[in-house]
């Protein structure tokens, strides 16, 4: 009933950002080191970092089929999804360890760990 | 039949934690483990009256439960892959059983039930359900919530363990310092919930405090750690006063007015005997609290209590756990050492802390010191405020009685 590994998505919520749009608490080098560690550990499935939120566009389709496209959404809360990793590890404790090592977990940022649903 | 039922119930309760832990480790699924365990009990109820209780009832239940779990997996075709894996595992030797009994996987289960990824309010309920062997209605009654509410909470927690795959394992030595306090916190909160019910009509719910002592005793047998011993000592040293803590009609009796002859001397001795081990090394918060409880338990009355030592221990505790609640207790101890004015000054320094604004022990401590200083109108106002924020009927009654006494 349980396979040996589970996929977890690490949703990286950026906290406060510096003038250049990067996270205030970590450097590009931190991310390079982390990315390499994830890949070297053989647990990497996929991962992307998202472009700035000002480039986001929301789409909704009303009941009558009308398409509504709006600029945004803009951050109403302090935390904005900035990127993600999908990793393949044995259990939640291991996933939490990788989340804790992620530079996005530092300071005002946070990493939300969610298992990928299996069908 | 009633006798057998009682025997099965007693054996099951005793063995429940062990049974469930072993099944959970083996099958990696708490729900399946629980179902198999309860099916084994059903089988025992059917089998034991006719054939007698087997010589090793725990092992009988374990074997039966394991078989039931495999049957269940076999019925469910999605589990075939897992079954193949289990067959491989079954070929490996079972780990040697300690003292001729069953292997004990309960330590893993303690850590799983107290896992930080579970909602804090669910951890105690799950621990009582899985390790103390309480039924869901019993757990609901203990926490004074409707059975359906508790059933939902337990189901939610078990689902998270399964779907997010919270592991059944003991943290490594390097993780233990970060994870053990979480387990101890769960047991301590079960104890304090029983000791001073956070809501409802009764001040003490003895059964929860006793469950907590049972659980910490099991844990102490599985894991050698100073703070585990410290928490066990603390529970015993506090629970020893249970008979004196309330009047026959359920009103709380403050430490200073308790009949110390009614304290459970044997339990105090048991707690005191643990202190040297609990305090051998850098002190932990439970060891220090146990030492404070011991000073009260050893004193003949409130005037001969070693207050300088109590204050010194609160100083240590306040550094270890800088919480406003501990600051309140420390101020009360200083009031006993240096007089009510000194204590009141410290309490007034804490007045701006939003966490204490509705904290009735803070409000009552302040009222008490004002009364002792003869500042009656202020004491009356302070007791009224404490009354507004009292969580239990008995506390309310106590504050009302104090208020009435001041008005006379």
Automatic annotation (TrEMBL), chain A:
InterPro entries per UniProt: Dimeric_a/b-barrel, YCII
Keywords from the UniProt entry: Signal
Domain YCII-related: 8-119
Signal peptide residues on this chain, from the entry's feature table: 1-19
Any Pfam family: YCII
Family: Belongs to the YciI family.
Protein name per UniProt: Uncharacterized conserved protein
Organism in which the protein naturally occurs: Actinokineospora terrae
From TrEMBL, chain B:
One GO process term, biological-process aspect: DNA-templated transcription initiation
Top-level division of the source organism's lineage: Bacteria
Domain RNA polymerase sigma-70 region: 14-77
Domain DUF6596: 179-278
Entries under SUPFAM superfamilies matching the protein: Sigma2 domain of RNA polymerase sigma factors, Sigma3 and sigma4 domains of RNA polymerase sigma factors
Alphabetic keyword roster: Sigma factor, Transcription, Transcription regulation
Domain RNA polymerase sigma factor 70 region 4 type: 113-161
GO molecular function list: DNA binding; sigma factor activity
Keyword Ligase belongs to the record: no
Family classification: Belongs to the sigma-70 factor family. ECF subfamily.
Protein's name in the database: RNA polymerase sigma-70 factor, ECF subfamily
